[in-house]
Amino acid sequence: MASAASALHMRGIGKVFPGVKALSGVDLAVRFGTVHAIVGENGAGKSTLMKILSGAYAPTTGTIEVAGTEVRMKRPADAQKLGIRMVHQELNLVPDLTVAENIFLGRMPRRLGFFDRGGMVRRAAAILAELGAAIDPQQRLGDLSISQQQLVEIAKAYAAEPRIIVLDEPTSSLSEHETAALFRILRKMRDAGIAIIYISHRLKEVLDIADEVTVLRDGAMIETRPASGITAAEMIRLMVGREVSNVFPKTPSTIGRQVLRVRNA
Question: From the CB of residue 49, how many other CB atoms can be counted at a distance below 10 Å?
Fold first, then answer.
């Protein structure tokens, strides 16, 4: 594994929209060669923080360092130039293009000034093979399953040679078997020295894949811990700000009269 040097340090990040304080003094430190999970309830500020990191929003307060250098990002293109790539929950792919064309969308390789289709296909095949994804680079993307399209989205980010990759709920449409395959790919990327920021509501998965966990609540950073030193129950307590003895408590209810009966269906 590559040395776990500082990949990202967001200090004192605040974001105020008209009438709404979305983030307040958030600190986030992520190291190269690690998977850093960010968890929190809906509205905790996860998406706003990542939009700031991706250059979609400018912070109201705070500073951002990438690989030890303070940076200012005014647009997503600025983040991409710094080696930051986002893999959104909603896939950003073109169904009628091939897998290879999607992987190099906007960055089509050229040779002697002309589009190099053969080179593109070979490079896409090499990237998919490196990630362990058994997908034909010349296949139409729309003919793939959703889980395969998710892998193409990750291959697209990986092909750009990123230093930091952010994954937003990457397993929301995946089965347990497909999630295991995705985790094998993420571990390969981590071992190659890439810093991976992993956002998920699935706490068991967080404990399976993450090296460190940061908990956000109400727009503030509550705590960062090694994943080996926290449990799902502790994450829930930090996320909601109180002890939760029963995640799905039973409440008293009155059973009404029968309104439907089906026999010998």
Answer: 28
Q: Any idea which residue has 């690989």 for tokens?
A: 67
Which residues, at least 6 apart from 206, have a Cβ–Cβ distance to it below 8 Å?
A: 37, 39, 198, 200, 213, 227, 235
Q: State the pLDDT at residue 247.
A: 56
The rounded distance, in Å, linking the Cα atoms of 194 and 228 is 20
- State in Å, rounded, how far the first CA of the chain is from the last one: 59
Closest-CA residue to 210 (of 194, 196, 192, 193): 196
Q: Which residues of 61-70 are buried (b: 16+ CB within 10 A; e: fewer)?
A: ebebebbeee
Strand pairing report for 69-71 and 220-226? unpaired
Query: How many C-beta atoms surround the C-beta of residue 173 within 10 A?
Result: 14
Predicted TM-score (pTM) of this structure: 0.82
Mean per-residue pLDDT for 60-77? 94
Give the pLDDT score at 175: 82
Determine the Cα–Cα distance for residues 142 and 144; give it in Å rounded to an integer: 5
Residue 2: the pLDDT is 39
Q: What is the mean pLDDT of residues 238-253?
A: 71
